[in-house]
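Appendix B, record 7
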Amino acid sequence: MPSSVIRAFYYDAPHAVLRIVFVSGAVYDYQAVPASVYEAMRKAFSKGTFFNNEIKDKFEFSRYNKDEGR
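Structure tokens (predicted):
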């Protein structure tokens, strides 16, 4: 099901970084995210609800700035 909040998400397994692209255009990288969390997000019916319950406020993050590379 398409999310009304999350446009896309990608997982960098070697670095355990989950990048989330929001519909607003904001891009965040969440660090030290286990592969199991990424897999659970892939399978979740509601990506936004999963994000709010399992990722938001649980992992360190940085906002990606394409002009600075981060």
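Remarks on this record: The chain has a mean pLDDT of 92. The first helix runs from residue 35 to 43.
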